[in-house]
Amino acid sequence: MTRYFLxxxxxxxxxxxxxxxxxxxxxxxxQQEWTHISEPGVQGSMAFDCQANWRILSDCIRAxxxxxxxxxxxxxxxxSTSMREGIVLYDRDGRELWACANVDGRAVQEVIDLKRQDDxxxxxxxxxxGQTFALGAWPRLEWLRxxxxxxxxxxxxxxxINDWVLARLCGEIVTEPSNGGTSGLIDLSTxxxxxELIARTGLASDLFPAMVEPGTAVGRVSYKAAAETGLTVGTxxxxxxxxxxxxxxxxxxxxxxxxxxxxxxFWQQVINIGQGRTDSTMRVRINPHVQNNLNQAECISFxxxxxxxxxxxxxxxxxxxxxxxxxxxxxxxxxxxxxQVPAGANGIIPIFSDAMDFGRWYHAAPxxxxxxxxxxxxxxxxxxxxxxxxxxxxxxVNLDRVLDFAGVSIDRPVVFAGGASKGALWSQILxxxxxxxxxxxxxxxxxxxxxxxxxxxxxxxxxxxAEAGRSFAATDRIVEPNTANASVYARARxxxxxxxxxxxxxxxxxxxxxxxxxxxT
Length: 521
What we know:
By secondary structure, the protein is of the alpha+beta class.
């Protein structure tokens, strides 16, 4: 009987279940968009609704099995991945007490107070963990200590959201290093919880569960989970990892120096590096890879996918209707329109995500600059193209930052994966802006493929994660840069950087409101 592997992905903007065969071919998928909850009276909060989101994931699992046209007992193993930074608290019986999504920003005052308490403490934590306080677990747990002390007192364990998926499947609460590292409490050199950092938080050491490496068997699907999801009781449950790190595994980027741009709700620009280094400027984030001999240097472009969704849903009802009537994706229709707009998007400058500065991370107010009322200048097509070009420009700036930190040059194509890489125009724009060839993988949903590779490794199909990643990954095509657009995009990059700095100054003056600020910035 043919065996299949199920990847469950709890992303920022949606939940997904994706099934792959033993060769890494995608054969079925279920996906539903979701949103996170702003708690009444809690500014910046983004709670993660465990009950509602588990129902969504369960529906996605059933849909993926139906889409694949297989029976659940053909699934040899299931693994999980998720947005990073989001955390879940459990009581002594393993029930969820509280959870928050990755960009939950409630802990502003806590970050400010921690920095005031000791102005060198954040740098000391970063030197060990590669993380600042901006998205770490400690400030959020400190917020609970101040505002929900009874809830924190009941907490017996804390995990990341991908670990929560495993706990729902088999009842075991564990953590793994790649996503656990984004808590800011793991030592990059040991891939274990840092006793020194945890001691400085004043949190109980037994709050932090056992550390398990990606690709390790954790348990088996329980009767309860089987009833909820349609999976077969006893199916192997394998430890997965953070979405970006598993994404690079799914792309076969398992060697030091390999680089990628992952285009999803957020865009990540990453390069694999050896262990033992952090950035003295704290501009670049350092995460454990899913492979135990590598770390990753990373920069993040904020809300790129959500910005596109906002634009589609707010301004493009006609295009959505046309797409639905012709069996197309609305983004495909918008790309066809944008392809008729010249490179440079008529000089329109979008102001959304900034380039990453991990130690002082905030954004300008969202806006479009340099619009015009001249006929044909500012249209849905030109605005959409401008957003695509801007995402590529921010990626180029970020990629330069991680390369400068890593001290390497790229002698191979930059891999472009994730939902955004489905766009033929966007892939070309990225190649043009980078001035480098861009490799498009056959399976664009690299995160899910990497998750399936971990599942396959966990049941013995491969000896190592690196072997699994290399086996599953395949390139569809190489997009060569159009050198005729080089000067256009070089000018657009310079203009954007100058315009963005001016727009951030308006935020600093209180004139406009930031798209997002890291807590405590």
